[in-house]
Design brief:
By secondary structure, this protein is α/β, with parallel strands linked by helices. The protein folds into 2 domains: 7-246, Type I PLP-dependent aspartate aminotransferase-like (Major domain) (Aspartate Aminotransferase, domain 2, 3-Layer(aba) Sandwich), CATH 3.40.640.10; 249-382, Aspartate Aminotransferase, domain 1 (Alpha-Beta Complex). The chain contains 14 helices and 12 strands. The strands form 2 sheets. The protein has a 7-stranded mixed beta sheet with strand order 1-7-6-5-4-2-3, sandwiched between helices. The protein has a 5-stranded mixed beta sheet with strand order 8-9-12-11-10, covered by helices on one side. Helix 12 (310-319) packs across helix 14 (371-382). The longest helix is centred in the C-terminal third of the chain and has 20 residues, at 249-268. The radius of gyration is 21 Å and the shape is globular.
């Protein structure tokens, strides 16, 4: 039985062993679509790379290890991973989802799966009671983001897991913003953990990949069938790059957290800033929950400049120099985004603003540069 490793060791060694062919320390990139068989069905565990690939297998074992789970599955993107979860459902089933969530998730739910007869309820999950009020006989799944994108709302995973178990519902948690370095939802009772591994796990803005981690064997079998049958799998190079990124996850996240704190505190004291959303503030809603279920508070934050309008936000993001104006997050470089016109543009304006995603909101992914350089860049952009 493999010795259970502490997190910092698991990022490097979890589920890994030297390659059996030549003892390669890093898993080789098995750039092949198919594998030789000695007789029909007689092979060495691999027959076709949509089904399995040794490089992807190494990544999936690593994913399970760092999430303290039993089974990892890798997909071509975070949305492909979500798509697989949704395919566990049937027409007439209902899903309760975080009301403040990534725009691509909202689009997948409302523009794809609603057309197949699945109904979605978007509720503010910071108050667990709102979930219980929404559950009915058709509810099958609760979908959680915490912290949420981009309002940084914190949701109590353990409390929702208790509700889910009482009603025999699946609980899936999008752990992209936190990463397993900061929180491990399976430990709090979640059934499925999802990542856009493009972000903190890969960590270098050079790959698109998604993942799921579960403990239940039958759930893993169902998701593996969907993974193979639908075919939205990553190639070996993307798997290799993500596995390489995971090996420095713990040291990168330490710096992301340090810099995130420095930037959040700077913005909170800036006369040109109206409001800062960051879970590390004691005044942040559900700060105590964040403190209990997260190791630290991360490198993601959002803020509203004084003036609180679209033009004020545009002026700032266009003047930034060290922060790159771009989609995505979680890379070593700092990024700035305007959710209303970028990551969350697919959500109707009225729905966006109900959850606080107003036209003045700016989202920052604070990288691992020198914190003072980042602060000086914000200073010159805000004025």
């Amino acid at each position: 039985m493999e010795k259970k490793l502490r997190f910092n060791s698991a990022t490097i060694h979890g589920g890994q062993s030297p390659d059996p062919a030549y003892g390669a320390v890093m898993p080789p990139i098995y750039q092949t679509s198919t594998y030789a068989q000695t007789t029909p069905g007689g092979h060495k565990g691999y027959e076709y790379s949509r089904t399995h690939n040794p490089t992807r297998t190494a990544l999936e074992k690593s994913l399970a290890s760092i999430e303290n789970g039993k089974h990892g599955l890798a997909f071509a993107s975070g949305l492909a991973a979500m798509d697989a979860v949704m395919k566990l459902l049937s027409p007439g089933d209902e899903v309760i989802s975080t009301h403040d969530l990534y725009g691509g998730s909202y689009r997948l739910f409302t523009k794809i799966f609603e057309d197949f007869g699945i109904k979605f309820h978007f509720v503010p999950m910071e108050n667990t009671a709102r979930i219980s009020e929404t559950i009915n006989d058709n509810t099958r799944l609760i979908w959680v983001e915490t912290p949420t994108n981009p309002m940084m709302n914190v949701i109590d995973i353990a409390a929702i897991a208790k509700v889910a178990k009482e009603h025999n519902l699946l609980l899936a948690v999008d752990n992209t913003f936190a990463s397993p370095y900061l929180q491990q939802p399976l430990n709090f009772g979640a059934d499925i953990v999802m990542h856009s591994a493009t972000k903190y796990l890969a960590g270098h803005s050079d790959v698109v990949l998604g993942s799921l981690v579960v403990n239940d064997d039958s759930l893993k079998e169902r998701l593996s069938f969907i993974q193979n049958a639908s075919g939205a799998v990553p190639g070996p190079m993307d798997s290799f790059l993500t596995l390489r990124g995971i090996k420095t996850l713990h040291v990168r996240l330490q710096r992301h957290c340090e810099n995130g704190k420095a930037v959040a505190e700077y913005l909170a004291n800036h006369p040109g800033v109206e409001k800062v959303f960051w879970p590390g503030f004691e005044t942040h809603p559900n700060h105590d929950v964040a403190k209990a279920q997260m190791k630290d508070f991360g490198g993601m934050l959002s803020f509203i400049p004084k003036g609180a309008d679209y033009n004020a936000a545009m002026k700032i993001v266009e003047k930034l120099q060290l922060f790159t104006l771009a989609e995505s997050l979680g890379g070593v470089e700092s990024l700035a985004g305007h959710p209303a016109s970028m990551t969350h543009a697919s959500i109707p304006k009225e729905e966006r603003e109900k959850s606080g995603v107003v036209d003045a909101l700016i989202r920052l992914s604070v990288g691992i540069e020198d914190a003072q350089d980042l602060i000086e860049d914000l200073a010159q952009a805000i004025g």
